[in-house]
Amino acid sequence: MKNFSTPPYAFRAILAVSVLTLTAPVALAQTSGKTPALIITNQPLPAALAGQIYTKPARTETITPQSLLGSYYGTSDTMVSKKIGNLHHDLGELQSDLARLSERLGALEKLNQDKAAAYYADTATISTQLQSGTTPGNPRLLQKLANAQDSLDSLAKNVNDFNDLAIEITKAGSVASYLLEGTRAAYGLTGAVEEDHVQLAQLEDTVNNTVVIIDRLQNNVNDDITRASAYLTTERNNLRTLSLAVTDGDLFGKALSNRPFTSLAKQTETVTTAKTADPAQDPSVSNPRPLVKIRFDKTNVNYEQPVYMALSEAMDKYPAARFELVAVHPTQGNAAQVAIESTKSRRNAEKVLRSMTQMGVPLDKLDISYASSESVTDNEVHIYIR
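-> structure tokens emitted (386 positions)
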């Protein structure tokens, strides 16, 4: 048992001896070149070792409201954020489709402009040549007519393409409605953080803007379809009239200065026209005021010009009117002569019917009948409006 009554100086002496005993092997190890197993020294600790040992207590950084908000409203990984990512992906594809549809619409409109310009160039050439004077059935003008007809056919095909484009835009509108409903429904999902609702609000506004663009594209396509359809109907009628003019070598609807009074007086001997007719009256031979009365008292009767002018005025005044052609034949002579005249009058009425359809009168607005009259001496065709 140790004696704890040893004086303090005796303890210090023992410690000194121990230190000398321990440092002696160090010196010996240094002289011999071997690394000692334990080194005890009174030198200060290295800075790196002191930094690892003396870490507590430590001062933290000062927390400000800006740093708190900046770290709080950061990126989040929730189910709602994944839903937002899917909606953004679908919206991106929809916007890419809209860009493609918009480019396609612009290309179709440009193609329509080119075809319309080509059509008017051909018809302008024909009208100019007819106004200057030409021969019946001029092959150059017939080629221009064929080119103009091709342009109208291309425009008609473009109308079908516009209809297909309208269907695709409608489908895009359905996708946009689905995305908008999905975005609004995502507000009610649980497990969202504040940033998710902020992104949902931005996404909702973007989808709404996309819906506005889709509506604008749909309106533009519908306007193009309506305008092109009306344009085709009008120009087809004009082209039929122009075709008849090329066949006859004369321009319909020309100015009054190009029709001398002598020629007009000669025509009135064969063709009698009435500027107005009462649509309320039923068409019949006894009607004193037919729209047009054509008397076939010679081989070639130039009735197209007066008929065209009378029909134009009548359709301007009564757009929904119908027309009836009555083939009138005389009753003088025996039964065989009456039968022959009846057949001739029907053929004349069919000829006038074909001319009216070429002038642009729809076939469903034309009726044809025949009758006999004791007051006529030659075959006649009366045109009534109702």
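Residues 77 and 357 are 73 Å apart (CA to CA).
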